[in-house]
Amino acid sequence: MRLIPLLFLIIVSVSCCTAGYRVFENHEIIFHYPASWRQVSFIHPPYDVERGYEYAITVAEPGGELRTMVTVEKLKADYRFPVPDNLTGEREVTVNGYRGVEFIYPENGSMVRATTIVTPRGRYAVICKADRGDFEMEKENFDLVTYSFRVKQ
Fold first, then answer.
1. pLDDT above 60: residue 123
2. Which PROSITE patterns does the UniProt entry name for this protein (predicted)?
3. 24-40 in b/e burial notation, b at 16+ Cβ within 10 A?
4. For residue 3, is it within any domain?
5. In what order do the strands lie in the sheet containing 150-151?
């Protein structure tokens, strides 16, 4: 009889802890994003397109305006992520054991936090963007995506 309440408690605890996010996973990477957000794109450009990334995934707050969003890019081997001149912050970070650098800068009425990460499978960028007035309020959501990022071994 004691087993049923215990199982119920475990199920409720697990769903409580994972109900706040969704998981993006492909053959190479995994990251979490807020449960209320949606994946809005998965871009795998053809090789003749001049882009700095091999593929990019964008998740965004609902509403379709892409005012608050995060894009995860796998950077091409020879691509150097552009560091803007108008940085308001720069620091070294560690994301799941991977070394990285975080840049914060304004861009067209928004604020951007771009974190470049070096992994055994290549370099990645996690680019978080929100309106200037909403940027600080979105920190928890941006941290969820950035700090849950990992590559499959």
1. yes
2. PROKAR_LIPOPROTEIN
3. beeeebebbbbeebeee
4. no
5. 21-25, 29-34, 150-151
